[in-house]
Amino acid sequence: MEILEYDLKGGNARFLFATDGSEFIFIPRQGGISRSEGVNFRMDPLLTDQGKRYVSFRSINRLFNVDITSNLATRKAFIRQPGLFFITFKGDTLKSLSELLNTTIARLLAINKNLKEPIVAGIHVRIPTIQPNSSSAKRGLQKAIRIKETEKAPDIIALGMRLRGTPYRFGAGPYPRSRRFDCSSYLQYIFGRNGISLPRTTRSQATLGKRIAQKDVEAGDVIFFRRPRIRIIG
């Protein structure tokens, strides 16, 4: 978990909770239905050996967005993060995959020409994101999201600066009552105080505004990071 930059944060009778500081992943103690960002998805049941629980490689791919391979001869595993592929399970659909990958069915099919329902288990579906060294990125097509009215940017930034140092808590309640922020509630608050209403979660906020090229980013713009699902806002 540490290698993947996730920590276990307790759990309940049904789930173990893992977090990277921006989202919680619910890993089932029994069965094969996990949950992240409000979306349920399949994984292999946890493997148990000598009282310890283990996650299968293909489930690691789905839970934590990494490509992982192993060399049994050297007893080493190789991890690529973020992953480029998403391994399908029985029961996956085009709709469920698009929700999990925070994309559209059209974009999913555009780069996975042979993908069709019923989806066969074990397929490596290419994740529709722009890679840093891709030709599209070099053409300046890396995207940011602008959610601002130009004349309000200085006031939004000033309020944000005044709130620096506010303690962080994932899933923080409304400020100021909670006296805490996470990344999306922070943006929701400073924009809201300046007359721009944003939804609560990072994923919902990313559906608003106007996409612009990375070279056009200005002070007051909002940038979303995806791994591959949008999780972090800045």
SSE blueprint:
Layout: E1 7-11, E2 15-19, E3 24-28, E4 33-36, E5 39-42, E6 47-49, E7 52-54, H1 57-64, E8 67-71, E9 76-80, E10 85-87, H2 94-100, H3 105-111, E11 124-126, H4 135-138, E12 143-146, H5 153-162, H6 183-192, H7 202-205, E13 210-213, E14 224-226, E15 230-233
Antiparallel strand pairs: 1-2, 2-3, 3-4, 4-5, 6-7, 8-9, 10-11, 12-13, 14-15
How would you explain this protein's 3D organization?
A 5-stranded antiparallel beta sheet has the order 1-2-3-4-5. The chain has helices at residues 57-64, 94-100, 105-111, 135-138, 153-162, 183-192, 202-205, and strands at 7-11, 15-19, 24-28, 33-36, 39-42, 47-49, 52-54, 67-71, 76-80, 85-87, 124-126, 143-146, 210-213, 224-226, 230-233. The chain is built from 7 helices and 15 strands. By secondary structure, it is an alpha+beta fold. It has 2 domains: 7-126, no CATH class; 143-233, endopeptidase domain like (from Nostoc punctiforme) (endopeptidase fold (from Nostoc punctiforme)). The model is unreliable at 130-148 (pLDDT under 50).
